[in-house]
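Extended Data, panel c. Modelled sequence:
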Amino acid sequence: MSTAVIVFAKAPVPGLAKTRLAPALGAAGAAALAERMLHHTLAQAVAADVGPVELCAAPDAMHPVLRAAAAEHGAALTEQGDGDLGMRMHRALARSLTRHGRALLIGTDAPSLHAAALQAASLALKDHDAVFVPTLDGGYALVGQRRADRRWFAGMTWSHAQVMTETRHRLRRAGVSWAELATVADIDEPADLVHLPAGWLDGLGLNPLTAPCSLGCGERR
């Protein structure tokens, strides 16, 4: 039974992508890092080899960087459509689950979410209704389902430290069995940049004399 892997991503446009990183990287640097994370995530999704990979994009899947990334990695390219994050996630998962027995949905913000974790998540869905990879900031980097259920997402307040806690409450109330894999770091704020793999900031045009110390620059001179 195949497991679809859906990658949620924004077009890496300065001022649109990874805007909370702009104070550290600048708008162009933040967008360049977003593009780097996009390609890394797609490569890991393909390497996991658990099923077809879909790049589900916002706000416009026709952006040339998104089209090129999907073509390079052999991913289908779709649009997230309207609605809040929960509505868009549910719609994408439900669509995939009409064609595949299991579906995983991930963002591009967790570089440590490697192919092995995707394989483990796919395997967990053999014995559980759902699977999650929590993040250090209280959210999650991966959600997987074998049956679409909008109750996990509807009316949720996103981007705060209790998202995973609230999700657990909802799952318990629904009588859903779920697995949680090892927690990973999201790269959302300047302080999160310390969790990037070595060398990932190379080539982004940062000035080491003015880069904030959240990048590990040490004492300024």
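Strands lie at 3-10, 53-58, 76-79, 102-106, 130-134, 140-145, 178-180. This feature is highlighted in the accompanying rendering.
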